[in-house]
Amino acid sequence: MATARETVVNRPAAKKPAAEPAPSVKSTMPTKTVFSGSIQYVQILNENGDADRAALPDLKDAEIVKLYEAMTLVRLFDQHAFLLQREGRMSTYAPSSGQEAIQVASALALKPTDWMVQAYRENGALAIRGIPLENVLLYWGGDEAGNFCELDKRTLPIAVPIATQLLHAVGVAHAMRIKGEKDAVIAFSGDGSTSEGDFNVALNWAGAFKLPVVFVVQNNQYAISLPRSQQTAAQSIAQKAFAFGIEGVQVDGNDLFASYKIASEALKKARRGEGATLIEAVTYRLSDHTTTDDASRYRTQEEVESWKKKDPILRLRKWLTAQKLWDDAKEAALAERNKAEIKAIIHRFESAPQPDIADMFRYTYEEMPPHLQEQLDAAKKAAGQ
Q1: Which are the contacts of 61, defined by CB distance < 8 A and separation ≥ 6?
Q2: Are strands 222-223 and 40-42 parallel, antiparallel or unpaired?
Q3: Helix 328-350 to helix 61-86 angle, to the nearest 10 degrees?
Q4: 3-class DSSP assignment, residue 320
Q5: Where does the pLDDT of residue 246 fall: very low under 50, low under 70, confident under 90, or very high at 90 and above?
Q6: 80 is catalytic
Q7: Cα→Cα distances 72→116, 314, 338, 348, Å
Q8: How many Cβ atoms sit within 10 Å of the Cβ of residue 304?
């Protein structure tokens, strides 16, 4: 049975003392503890589909089924987007398979008036937020229209530069504070973002000004090819929150229930004006970093297979089946609906109007500077326009 909360205890092995250790400052003068803390690991639904019933979040059966259906649609979308790239019908693509639970759960916890700030792998969150998935294909197909979002969706465009979107999130949160709005911002990033300066600046600003922002770090174990163990000496990413005076928590990111509960609590806290939270969602990237990557060069198939057993979709289906909310007939019907929806998404993507070449230059500055105007003129000339 899964436990609701467990303290992280994966401490590094102790080092042998030197033959003649240097005198410790602590041993020669009075000291007092100025800070101490621990990071809690939260899991409700384990990989066998067993849940801690007392810890289940306040979700209706229909909502849970809706989330399961969204996760399966996004997984199938991922597979077809990969094929589109391999067939030359789209450019580079960043898969999201394996990370669906934390994404759909966090997005469901948002209110329509909250803001969502994405990185470049948040397909599950976009689906729940109501952003057309063909926009993702348009973006990776090189069409600026893929960045368009209706203002009432309150979702920022895809951000590929690592961690820069966290500064955007803090800026939005600060603007909300100034305007007196009682809403929150959620910002997604990966474990690689925590090694960037922008990550530290964003968390410091959020802590210093007690801003209503929730940082969700999807720790999928790799920053492209660099494993988390080589990226930081910290026992957890969540503990980095302490340095900035905000709360940190580690959650099983493949557990839909725990992910929703923790995200919901953090967002409510932010809306109450009680400050920011850093959520480390422990998950796994089942596919390559992008379609230009070959993950087999830096991780073993045995490792991948071990994480497949923790698949967020598989474990949720086990729970739904045990609760008699799901069966093989419903799964077959869902598969057919998903196939039809994916076909429609790809059709809308490939039948979209050809983008205007000027779109690459129009939306950076209010007034186009001379050097960009020169590039635009050259591009038009090359295209025969």
Answers
A1: 323, 325
A2: unpaired
A3: 50
A4: helix
A5: very high
A6: no
A7: 22, 10, 8, 20
A8: 16
Which one is the CATH code of 37-287+299-354: 3.30.1490.100, 3.30.70.100, 3.40.50.970, 3.30.450.20?
A: 3.40.50.970
Question: Cβ distance 81 to 136 under 8 Å?
Answer: yes
Residue 2's pLDDT band, with cuts at 50, 70 and 90, is very low
- Whether the per-residue pLDDT at 91 is higher than 70: the answer is yes
User: If pLDDT is split at 50, 70 and 90, which confidence band does 13 have?
Assistant: very low
Report how far residue 358's alpha carbon sits from residue 175's, in angstroms, rounded to the nearest whole number: 31
**The one catalytic residue among 129, 289, 315, 317:** 289
- pLDDT exceeds 60 at position 83: yes
Q: Which of 129, 154, 168, 285 is catalytic?
A: 285
pLDDT of residue 3: 44
| Count of other CB atoms within 10 angstroms of residue 242 | 17
Cα 133 from chain centroid?
16
Mean pLDDT of the chain: 93
Active site residue 298: yes
Average pLDDT for residues 23-28, to the nearest whole number?
60
What pTM does this model have?
A: 0.90
pLDDT of residue 15: 52
SS3 366: coil
Tens-place pLDDT, residues 256-285: 999 999 999 999 999 999 999 999 999 999
User: Cα(353)–Cα(282) distance, rounded to whole angstroms?
Assistant: 40
Task: Give dist(CA 178, CA 164) in Å, integer.
Answer: 22
User: Out of 5, 86, 272, 298, which one is annotated catalytic?
Assistant: 298
Place of tokens 């993702």: 136
Q: Is 58 exposed, middle or buried (0-12, 13-18, 19+ CB in 10 A)?
A: exposed
Catalytic, 285? Answer yes
Domain residue spans of the chain: 37-287+299-354
**Cα–Cα distance between 374 and 376 in angstroms, integer?**
5
Convert the pLDDT of each residue in 156-209 to its tens digit.
999 999 999 999 999 999 999 999 999 999 999 999 999 999 999 999 999 999
CA-closest candidate to residue 98, choices 220, 230, 221: 220
Dist CA 41 CA 38 (whole Å): 10
* Identity at 83, one-letter amino acid code: L
What distance, in Å, lies between the first and last C-alpha atoms of the chain? 66
Provide the token pair at 114: 């909250």
